[in-house]
Specification:
The protein is of the alpha+beta class. It contains four helices and five strands; from the N terminus they run βββαβαααβ.
């Protein structure tokens, strides 16, 4: 799965936001605010990374040491992917 064409991340006043451009802006009006974790997930999906690769990146960034830590990160990634899917941001 990958983020649909036409959505870009920008840093505005120290915060990360996703905005629609081109054709995507005709269907989506607004912005999505992301924290650092959300930015990493969004960028990972935009780059075609797998869920496991994104979990690895976040585990390294957070210093996760146990499988329980990784399980929490994985659940968070899956939750955001679910929200992105529901909002129509992802394609297969």
């Amino acid at each position: 799965m990958k983020v649909k064409e036409g959505f870009v991340i920008r840093k505005v006043a120290g915060k990360y936001v996703v905005v629609a451009t081109g054709q995507a802006s005709r269907e989506f009006h607004g912005m999505v605010k992301l924290n650092e974790t959300g930015k990493t997930i969004w960028e990972g999906l935009s780059d075609g990374k797998t869920v496991d690769e994104i979990v690895d990146i976040l585990a390294e960034k957070s210093g996760a040491k146990t499988e329980d830590d990784r399980a929490v990160i994985s659940a968070d990634v899956q939750s955001m992917i679910g929200e992105m899917t529901d909002a129509g941001f992802l394609v297969d």
